[in-house]
Design goal:
The chain is mainly alpha-helical and 302 residues long. Helices cover 55% and strands 0% of the residues. It has 12 helices and no strands.
Length: 302
């Protein structure tokens, strides 16, 4: 999907790549493995530690241990992304405030219409709302561990660990997620980032509904009313499924494609495009989702 929701073309700049693989599951074996197993594990670093478990019967019956240090890194990355977004949005507010002052002068001189002035006021209000939303997310992320929601919990239980606050939306996420083979929790995390579960959400770029479908994408998946809850979730989930297939299960690339368009991912060599918004978008969702799926095969277009 093309850049939207958090778009600010005046402030988007290419900066150094941010962690393309920061959330590979931290799966250190609970007890020391044999030298042979350690070597095998090193040769298969893009997979789990199941190979090492073959040479250790005790390990084979236990799940890989998650280090507290890794969880700390996930939390730090999540907070860092929020702080980056906060800075971007605050800069955008400053730019729009300056622009609005100019619009007011032009309006007072009779050079522009009231519609143009009101459009500038709305853009400024939307930008300020984004700053406030990120501030709330930062406050939640800074809560003590005992109070904070565990965003990196095991996905085996993810189906029972989330709720949008609307039972019908929850049911539809599970239904279409299961129908199209997409983890419902991933759909939930994406929807939260896209629309904050606001059914009539519309971005400045024209993305619409819970899954923030652009008109072209909506038409591609047979969505005639993007504000219809069922149609939006169906279309967005199918699009996410196709992106996951296109990029061989790479969740980070699928999310980047959803935000910036699959062609942008392909253009940059099957990597997350170097756009500030897209990189932070991917990092925030993956940090919440708690798992970065990868494929051993290189990503390729269908």
């Amino acid at each position: 999907m093309h850049l939207r929701s958090l778009k600010s073309s005046a402030i988007l700049r290419v900066f150094a790549p941010i962690l393309t693989c920061f959330l590979m599951a931290a799966s250190a074996v609970a007890q020391e493995s044999s030298p042979a197993a350690q070597k095998q594990k090193a040769e298969t670093s893009t997979t789990t530690s199941k190979s090492a478990a073959i040479s250790n019967n005790n390990v084979a019956s236990k799940p890989a241990a998650k280090s507290s240090g890794s969880n700390d890194n996930v939390t730090d990355d999540y907070k860092s992304s929020l702080n980056t977004l906060s800075t971007l949005y605050q800069n955008e507010v400053k730019r729009l405030e300056k622009q609005n002052n100019q619009l007011k002068d032009l309006y007072n001189q009779g050079l522009i219409s009231r519609i143009e002035l009101e459009g500038g006021n709305k853009a400024l209000a939307d930008a300020r709302a984004k700053v406030e939303e990120v501030a709330r997310q930062i406050a939640a992320a800074n809560q003590p561990p005992a109070m904070a929601v565990n965003m990196a919990s095991d996905l085996a239980a993810s189906d029972h660990a989330w709720a949008t606050g609307n039972a019908r939306v929850d049911s539809l996420i599970r239904y279409y997620g299961n129908q199209y083979g997409v983890d419902p929790y991933l759909v939930y995390c994406l929807m939260s980032q896209e629309s904050k579960f606001i059914m009539n959400a519309t971005s400045p770029k024209g993305a619409q509904g819970l899954m923030q479908l652009m008109p072209g994408t909506a038409a591609r998946y047979g969505v005639t009313n993007p504000y219809d809850v069922a149609q939006s979730i169906m279309g967005g989930t199918r699009y996410l499924k196709d992106l996951l297939q296109m990029f061989n299960g790479r969740v980070d690339l699928a999310l980047a494609g959803y935000n910036a368009g699959e062609n942008a991912v392909i253009k940059y060599g099957y990597n997350v495009p170097p756009y500030d918004e897209t990189r932070n978008y991917v990092r925030l969702i993956i940090a919440r989702y708690g798992k970065k799926q990868t494929s051993s095969a290189p990503a390729r277009a269908l």
